Amino acid sequence: MDTEPAAFDNTKHEIGTSRVTLVFNRTFGQSAYPERKMITPEDSLSHFRALDTIDPFVARLFGVVFHDFDRPVTKENLDECEVGCQHVAGLLDLSLRLILKGEKFGWKFPEMCLHPRHQGNLADVVLILSDHSRLLQLAKEIKS
Question: pLDDT tens, 1-24?
């Protein structure tokens, strides 16, 4: 198993990693992952606000989280939505950009501002993002 450094309450540790590594922090603790870009809700919202358009691949992944979204997934439609939808769109777009650059990243509080039924759907997105063959399959479906 691969490991990488992490710090919890300023105490250094080596944690085991794999394609998907879930780390649950206690309520009032501090954590740091020096080898990863940690995407916070503030990062994802800021990234969303800077987007001009929503990438078709991001729109497809957005639909995995929000099965019940009843409009086309466009920047204009998401601008009219609550912050949870905007956070997820920014999170997905930023994550895909980091994947394409080959950078390690993590999500900090990805469930923020989401209804529990949508929070659970984020796990499906994690599985898709961690499976390169599934990513390629989705990309082909979008192009056709």
Answer: 789 898 888 889 898 887 777 666
The pTM score is 0.86
Q: Quick one: three-class SS letters along the chain?
A: CEEEEEEECCEEEEEEECCCCCCCCCCCCCEECCCCEEECHHHHHHHHHHCCCCCHHHHHHHHHHCCCCCCCCCHHHHHCCCHHHHHHHHHHHHHHHHHHHCCCEEECCCCCCCCHHHHHHHHHHHHHHHCHHHHHHHHHHHHC
SS3 39: strand
Q: Would you tell me how many other CB atoms lie within 10 Å of the CB of residue 128?
A: 15
Q: Give Cα 43 distance to the centre of its chain.
A: 11
